[in-house]
Design a protein that fits this description.
alpha+beta; 2 domains; 10 strands; rod-shaped; 10-stranded mixed β-sheet
């Protein structure tokens, strides 16, 4: 039998003989490792989980034009700066004044799928528009005009330049009657021309939007429908981006967009980004504090158990010293027992820690957590280090045991 095998057999046999006491120490190490691995998993997964939760409260970055508007191509360039795995949703908006029942209403043309992804807090009674000729109406607009889901509605748009040109010339040799008749004819012609130039489009209301905010005073249609209604593609007034990232990373994305696209100005929605950063920082600090406290309690428990073990084995230690055993060999044996306890407890605790983190994640965030394989060796190593440090003080007491006094029963 080799020396290593003999050493391992000695410490394993010692643990088995004192299994009741060592089981308590193993349980404390396993619980400490479980809390450690679980909280560390939560610590590193919290940014993703928190980002997912905060994305339900709307976009955290907006892209505005430096002048009146910017093109869809520039909007796509700005969106391309954000990595696909971080981009939750992107909603471009173009606003135009339209009329319903000869009353002005603000219409927003957008990508419905992008709006749904970037504003999941929107409560729609009915369905989101999914095709041409479908309209999402704000609650205030619906109540004002008595609109309901499934009803048709005609939307009218008047171009900015309705009337034809006027050269401003006048004829002096006409009679007053002729002038009056001419004015009446021109008025009728202008009215007829205005009716011709007004663009009308029939829609069907598919949903009523209820947000409790200003969105309820708008009507929403696809960008293609708005372009067809106005007779021109037009530019975008704003691009809302919902991004899973911390505040520092968001600021970097905004700077990259401003450098890549000259016509836009990207900025953070501070009330969302700052709130997310504050909550995340405090939550991570709390997790770190709890982890430190749990490790300290684990060390105390292991140190207490090892102290009791050393006291219980004083006769054995004294006899071994009397037979010529060195302090170093005795220290190595006790240290080996502690480290072995740490390794076994760390392995058990890592497995239990994943289920612990999964339960916390499902209970708090209603979302599953990602297992990190690298956490297994880290947790085992940390458990071994904790039990090793906890065993140092009681093990040092073995060097002070005098065989003569112990064997005499003193």
């Amino acid at each position: 039998m080799t020396k290593k095998k003999m050493f391992f057999r000695m410490i394993s046999a010692s643990l088995v003989r004192r299994r009741s006491r060592m089981l308590i120490a193993l349980l404390s190490v396993a619980i400490g490792a479980m809390i450690l691995s679980g909280l560390v998993t939560i610590y590193y997964d919290v940014p993703r989980q928190m980002g997912t939760q905060f994305r339900r409260y709307g976009s955290n970055m907006i892209v505005l034009p430096k002048e009146e508007s910017f093109s869809m191509e520039d909007g796509e360039k700005a969106k391309a700066v954000i990595p696909e795995d971080s981009l939750v949703g992107a909603a471009p908006y173009r606003y135009e004044n339209v009329r319903i029942n000869q009353t002005t209403v603000l219409a927003a043309g957008t990508d419905m799928e992008g709006a749904k992804a970037s504003s999941p807090y929107w409560n729609v009674d009915g369905k989101w528009p999914s095709g041409s000729g479908q309209l999402l109406v704000g609650k205030e607009v619906a109540e004002k005009y008595g609109l309901k889901v499934g009803e048709p509605v005609t939307v009218t748009y008047t171009p900015e330049e309705v009337y034809g040109g006027d050269d401003g010339t006048e004829t002096e040799d006409v009679s007053d009657a002729a002038g009056a008749a001419s004015s009446e004819t021109e008025a009728e012609s202008e009215t007829e021309e205005e009716m011709i130039l007004d663009n009308e489009m029939d829609f069907q209301v598919t949903g009523i939007l209820d947000t409790g905010g200003s969105e309820e005073s708008y009507i929403y249609m696809s960008l293609d429908d708005l372009a067809q209604l106005t007779g021109e593609d037009g530019g975008l007034d704003i691009l809302e981006l919902s991004i899973t990232a911390q505040q520092d990373q968001l600021s970097e994305y905004a700077d990259q967009i401003n450098e890549a696209v000259d016509t836009v100005n990207a900025r953070l929605v501070k009330r969302v980004a700052q709130s997310e950063g504050t909550v995340l920082t405090k939550l991570q600090a709390l997790v770190l504090l709890v982890t430190i406290v749990v490790l300290a309690l684990t060390m105390i428990c292991v140190a207490t158990t090892m102290t009791a073990t050393v006291t219980e084995r004083k006769m054995e230690i004294g006899l071994r010293k009397a037979l010529g055993a060195s302090d170093q060999s005795i220290i190595q044996e006790f240290m080996g027992e502690g480290i072995l306890l740490g390794a076994i407890g760390g392995l058990i605790g890592t497995v239990l820690g994943f289920f612990f983190a999964q339960g916390v994640s499902m209970g708090v965030f209603n979302n599953s957590i990602v297992f990190r394989p690298l956490l297994l060796p880290i947790t085992i190593a940390a458990s071994m280090a904790v039990t090793g440090l906890a065993s140092m003080i009681p093990i040092r007491a073995t060097t002070k045991i005098d065989p003569a006094f112990v064997l005499k029963g003193e």
